[in-house]
Write a structure and sequence with these properties.
This protein has 86 residues and is an alpha+beta fold. Helix content is 26%, strand content 52%. The chain is elongated and about 45 Å long. The relative contact order is 0.37.
Length: 86
């Protein structure tokens, strides 16, 4: 039996409003990350997809270290599993 997992997480990234465009450019470089809604107040909703939870956690840590980012908060996390025969 072949087990595959996919972690999907949604984050709210809060950054300095004057650096919003630069933060979005940096976020767009990260693998498995999609940019979604944003506000002029410096908030961006992103979705992460990864095969391992550790990749999600590592990406959140990386985002929090980006210049201009004030906070990255996990809003939603789901584990999808696909089971099939090998």
């Amino acid at each position: 039996m072949n087990n595959e997992a996919l972690h999907i997480a949604s984050l709210l990234v809060h950054c300095r409003p004057e650096l919003l465009d630069a933060v979005k450019r940096n976020l767009a470089l990260l693998p498995g990350l999609e940019l979604h809604q944003e506000s002029a107040a410096g908030k961006v909703v992103v979705v992460l997809e990864a095969e391992h939870e550790s990749r999600i956690l590592g990406t959140i840590d990386h985002i929090q270290q980006l210049p201009g980012v004030l906070n990255a908060a996990l809003i939603y996390h789901e584990l999808l599993t696909l089971e099939g025969e090998a």
